[in-house]
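For practice. Any example?
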Amino acid sequence: MNNFFPAVLRLIAKLVILAIAVIAVAVIVFWTPGKPADELAERWATPPSLFMDLHGMQVHIRDEGPRNDPEPVILLHGTSASLHTWEGWAEHLAQHRRVIRMDLPGFGLTGPHPREDYHITAYSEFVIALADSLQIDKFVLAGNSLGGRIAWTTAAVAPERVTRLILVDPSGGYPLPPKSMPLAFHVAQLPVLGQLMDYMLPRFMVRNSLENVYANPDLVTDELVDLYYDMARREGNRQALRQRFQQDDNGHEQAIIRSLEQPTLILWGAQDRLIPVANGYEYARDVRNSELVVFPDLGHIPQEEDPDQSLQPVLNFLGLAEQR
């Protein structure tokens, strides 16, 4: 008995030393320092990309299509994505409508918010400020995941500005838990590992996270992984992701959703494991002037996984189907 406790202490000490050694090796192997936006812009901000000075940030933006459009279409991406997620949609829509997409604060080449404010209200204020800077009075607002939540929040606080809504697997509003969450999201919310991710980012984690939100993981190409990996490596973005999760004020927001009066198109991938399609039916029930379209074979980001299939209902909604 007298030798028991010293033996246990020695074992604990060895385990602590082993854990420290494993962490040290992992940091060395997966050390991933941040990269400045201008270095990443050489690959990911080619024309028609521009940078706009807004709210103390250099916002990465693409503004395409006819300038005489009375109600431009503004596209908002989801968590850890970028304006590139809308490439397939924008390529066609810009032939008929003015299309504006940007990297939201904390993501893409725009990078961290100078006040580290990632509450939904701050994002909504950002969208309105962006429209004001571009001298756009009224607009159609579309968003995927986090972008969808920002979209319907903005529509609720500025109904005189948002004429139509397109919600693509939006987050928020309903408490249904995910069936599966991307690995990177899990790690970012852990106390110690989340902070370690500020300095190390295994490439396989990015690929795993993308495959998690696609219905068909075979569509996750090396170039797509390059894009998401580089956007995560942009200086400050990993810290911003942690802060975004810490500031998440997602609650029971059905009252806000029920207040929406804009014509609303709700798109959902039936294979979405992050935000189950059951949420889509909740939105369709609560948004009085809405239409729900479910894609049986798509996941959480339909506009990226299959731009052609997911765009067709949008063209019908905007009265552009015959112009395709």
